[in-house]
Design a protein that fits this description.
Blueprint lengths: L2 H13 L13 E6 L6 E9 L2 E10 L2 H14 L4 H15 L6 H4 L12 H20 L2
Antiparallel strand pairs: 1-2, 2-3
Helix pairs in contact: 1-2, 2-5, 3-5
Amino acid sequence: MDENLRREIILDNYQDPMNRGLIEDSSYVRERMNSESCIDDLDFMMKIEDGKIQDIRFDGEACAISTSATSIMIRKLMGLTVEEARKILENYQNMIYEKEYDSELLGELNVYDTIHKQPNRMNCALLPSVAVKKMLEKLK
């Protein structure tokens, strides 16, 4: 991916993230996440109806990588079935850990395909995927 495009996608999603702000609704599953290596401290909430992700929201303090990864992840997962979301999450985490993954499946999430070169930033990029996985587990 072109480095200028990568920076633009990350910056756009950091400055104007999708679905920032929590709401009061008991039908949402919630998860709080923080990072040991960064300022990231985010609350997540997700609503699933009829096996599909209807909404994901977040709020808190986080770095550019974590905030932008959350925004891009939300955009990618909205409207997907739980199984489709799990497939995205698995491929995304495989990409971060330099394992085999399907880049076509990830779309804009591919902006983090070189994050492994900055190991201290990997947790920032992984934070939203771990949060979504934990929320999905609560639904079982």
